[in-house]
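dumping these here so i dont lose them again. two proteins, back to back, each one seq then structure tokens. dont judge the mess
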Amino acid sequence: MRQEKRAARRAAGFTKSIGGAAMSSVGKGEQIARLRSGQLRLALGEEPVWTDRRGDRTASLRPPFSLKPTGVKLPLGPKFERYELVTADGTFDLALPKKDRDS
């Protein structure tokens, strides 16, 4: 029996919340969540998987999932769009390049 191969999509982007927040000190004992770069792998019938660019953090999220644009501007500039990744595990922030939107 021939096994059907599923097409997976990978998108490079930024997140603060997938896999837990990475905190950075801003002085006087205060910290803020910082953006982490990485890639999101999406494949039909599989869990979405986020992998940080440095490879030190990976998170699998339970399906079903949807990606919803928020319309909120990003400080990263006009080349990125902000999305909400909604999964069975919760809602997470995600910034993806606009050029990847329709591909």
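---- next one ----
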Amino acid sequence: MWNKPKQQVSFKSTDSLIGLGGTLEGKVQCDTNLRIEGNFSGEIQCQGTVTVGEQGTVRSSIKAQEIIIAGKVFGDVTADRRLTMTGTGQLHGNILAGTLSIMEGSVLNGSIGMAEQPAPEKAGGLQEDKNKDKAGKRASKAQSKLEAG
């Protein structure tokens, strides 16, 4: 009864929120997801997903695993995995993303750079057999001599 092993309590990570009507300025670094419905100015680095809601306005560079833009963003964004712009999203800055989804109605003013994804395996192409190639050249020369003479 007294020697029972203590149970480990697991804590779930919570998302961070900058709510509607809220204004925040500075540098945000987070390991969880971040949702912005208010105003933010500064720099954002996030290991999760950054979502800029329809009422959100961000004047900042954003670096995250995934970025969803439904509001307004003024600054460069880097999405390691995916960037999604909804029909209400506006981005005035440059993009670097693994994959990109831009829905009809969104506004993009800037340049796009796609991160190169490593190929899972080499593409199967023709494998050259040098001995076979030499034999083919010899046969071709012999055929041309027969036709010429």
